[in-house]
Amino acid sequence: MKHIAAYLLLNLAGASTPSKADLEKVIKAGGVEPDDAQLDSLIAAIAGGDVNELIAQGLTKIGSVSFGGGGGGSAASAPAAGAAAAAPEKKEEKKVEEEEEDDDMGFGLFD
Fold first, then answer.
1. pLDDT digits (tens, 9 = 90+) for 24-39
2. Contact between 34 and 20 (Cβ < 8 Å)
3. Are 21 and 100 in contact (CB under 8 A)?
4. Backbone φ, ψ for residue 25 (5° rounding)
5. What is the arithmetic mean of pLDDT over 66-72?
6. What is the pTM of this model?
7. Residue 42 near residue 26, CB atoms below 8 Å
């Protein structure tokens, strides 16, 4: 994925056909070593193709994939009227916790 992400970043930056050296530079800038075999495979697979056309082709293929998810579960039934009157509602106060500041959230760009 890091190789594809680098290719798409370069494409968005205006390089319609980024070279292997360009891809390596972007990946290394993310602090990761590129895999030469994967880069060669990516460049061979995309060779001469327009990224937007390739994405459109991929979307038509993924359109036939079932992701499951037949629907949500049924909603819980409402409590009886007598039970609702007998039990007073408790209001919970939510404490706002200060979040620890972690700029990269423990991830690198290309991990």
1. 999 999 999 999 999 9
2. no
3. no
4. -65, -45
5. 66
6. 0.53
7. no
For residue 1, the 8-state DSSP code is: -
Distance CA 45, CA 95 (A): 52
CA torsion sign for 62, 65, 68, 69 is positive
Q: Does the structure show a pLDDT above 70 at 109?
A: no
Element (H, E) at 11: helix 2-12
User: Which spans in 17-95 are helix H?
Assistant: 20-29, 36-46, 51-62, 81-86
> Taking a C-beta distance cutoff of 8 angstroms, is the pair 11, 18 a contact?
yes
Find where tokens 């798409």 sit. 8
Identify the residue whose tokens are 């594809």.
Answer: 4
* CA distance linking residue 109 with residue 87, whole number of Å: 51
Give the length of the chain.
111
Residue pair 8/51 in contact (Cβ under 8 Å)? The answer is yes
Structure tokens at 79: 């409590």
DSSP code of residue 46: H
pLDDT at residue 7 tops 80: yes
